[in-house]
Amino acid sequence: MTGIPVVLDVDTGLDDSLALLLAARSPALNLLGVTCVTGNVTVDKVVDNTLKVLAVAGRGDVPVAIGRDKPLLEKVVSAAYVHGEDGLGGLNATLSNPERDPEPTHAVDFLANLLATASEPVTLVPLGPLTNIAVLLRERPEAVAGIHRIVLMGGAVGSGNASAVGEFNIRQDPEAAEIVLTSGLDVTLYTWDVFTQVTFAATEVAGMMGSDSPSAQLAGRLMDFMLRNHDRTETSIGDAGAVASVIEPEGLETRQWPMRVELTGTWTRGMTVADQRPGTWVHKESAWQPPMGNLVSVSTAVDVERFRTLFRQAVEHPADRN
Ligand code: BDR
Ligand code: CA
Question: How close is the Cα of 94 to the center of ligand 1, in Å?
Answer without folding.
Answer: 23
